[in-house]
Amino acid sequence: MSINLAIAAVVLFLVLAAMFRSLWDGVLVMLSMPPAIAGGVLALRALNLFTTQAMDLLTTIGFLILLGLVVNNAILLVMQARTGMRNGLERSAAVAEAVRLRARPIYMSTLTSIFGMLPLMLVPGVGSQIYRGLATVIIGGMFVSAVFTLVLMPSVLRLPPLGLPLRRRVAPTEGVTADA
C-alpha cells in the first residue's frame, strides 16, 4: 500500500510539473500535502479520546479525498500568483494579489467541506459510525490546510525558485535586427 501511495505522489508531482511547466511550482503544491495529513492524523487522535475509531478502509479513503481537496486550494494560489507575475507584477505584489483574489474561494471550499462532514462526525447513529473516520480526517486536514495555504504558502511563494537568486529576463529590443 505504501508503494502505491509513493507512486501516486510521484505521478501527481509529474502532472503538476507538466501543468505548471515548472518543477518548483509542482513542489510548492506538493508542500500543502504533509500539513493536511498531519491535520487528519491529529483529528483522528482527538476523536479517539472520545470514541474508538480504527484506521479502516473508509478512513484511508478519507486521506485520499483530503489530498485531492488540499491540492486544489494550493493550485488556485500558485496559478494566480504566477499569472500576476506574467502580467508584470513583482513577485511580492503578485503573491499579495493572489491571496487577496483567492482567499474567499479557498475559504468557501474549505468551509463547505468542513460543514458538510460535521454531521457525519458528530451525529450518533449506525450510518454515521461507518463514515466517522472519513469525516474526521477531512475536517482536521482541511482546517490545517486552510491555515497553511493562506498563511505559510504566500511566504514560500515569495522565495526565488529552489533558493537560487532571481534572474531577470532581458526584454528583447524592438526594431534591432542582425543587419544593423
Give a quick precis of the structure:
The chain is an all-alpha fold. Helix content is 76%, strand content 0%. The protein has a single domain (11-160), classed as Multidrug efflux transporter AcrB transmembrane fold (Up-down Bundle), CATH 1.20.1640.10.
How would you describe what is shown here?
The chain is elongated and about 55 Å long. It contains six helices and no strands. The chain starts with a helix and ends in a 23-residue tail after the last helix. The protein has a single domain (about 10-160), classed as Up-down Bundle (Multidrug efflux transporter AcrB transmembrane fold). The chain has about 180 residues and is mainly alpha-helical.
Domain count: 1
Helix content: over 70%
Tell me the name of the CATH homologous superfamily. Answer: Multidrug efflux transporter AcrB transmembrane domain
Class based on secondary structure composition and strand pairing: mainly alpha
Q: What's the total helix number? A: 6
The CATH class turns out to be Mainly Alpha
What summary fits the major beta sheet?
none
| C-alpha termini separation | 64 Å
Task: Name its key features.
6 helices; Multidrug efflux transporter AcrB transmembrane fold; mainly alpha; about 180 residues
Topology, element by element:
Elements: H1 2-20, H2 23-30, H3 33-47, H4 57-86, H5 91-122, H6 126-157
Helix pairs in contact: 1-2, 2-4, 3-4, 3-6, 4-5, 4-6, 5-6
